[in-house]
Amino acid sequence: MPVEHPRSTWLTIEGVVLILLGIAALAAPLIAGLATAVLIGWLLIMAGILGLLSAFAGRAHVHMGWSIISAIVALVVGVLILFFPLVGTLGLALLIGAYLLLDGAALIGLSFDQRKKHAKAWGWLLVSGIVDIILAIVIVALSAIGSAVFIGIIIGIDLIIAGIALIAVHRTAPTAV
Hints:
Helix 2 (about 30-55) packs across helix 6 and helix 4 (about 85-115) runs antiparallel to helix 5 (about 120-140). The chain is globular, with a radius of gyration of 19 Å. About 35% of the residues are buried. By secondary structure, it is an all-alpha fold. The protein has one domain. It is built from six helices and no strands.
C-alpha cells in the first residue's frame, strides 16, 4: 500500500531547471564541456587547499604525510585542468561515464521502488536510468575521440531526461518521491 506524502512543487521546479540547463548545454556543448572541466578544476583546487589546511590544523588521527599527498594531488590535478581544460575533458570523459553508469543504476533501482509504491511515472525513472547507462557506454567507448563538445552533449541530454522524469513523477503520482 502506498504511503501518502504531501505533494511538493519542488520536483517540478527542479525538473524545469534541469531541462533549461540541459537545453543550454545542448545549444552550446563546447562551452558546457569546458565549463564542466573548469568547475571540476576549481573544486579540486578548493579540496586541495582545504586538505592542506586540515592536515596542518589538527588531523592528529590521520597520517599527516598521506593527507598532504592527497591534498597536493588534488591541487595539481585541479590546476592542470584549469590550464588545459580540453585535455582535462578527456580524463573527465571516463569520470562522467562512471558517474552516468552509477547514476543509471541508482535511477533504475529507484524506478523499481516507485513501481512497488504504485507510482504512475516509475517508467520515466527507468528510462532515465537506461539512458544514463547507454550514455555511459558511449562516452567510455569514444573516450579516445571524446571532447568537450561530446561531454557537453552528454550533460545536456542527461539533464533534460532527468528533468522530464522529475516532472512526470510529481505530476502523476499521488505520493512524492
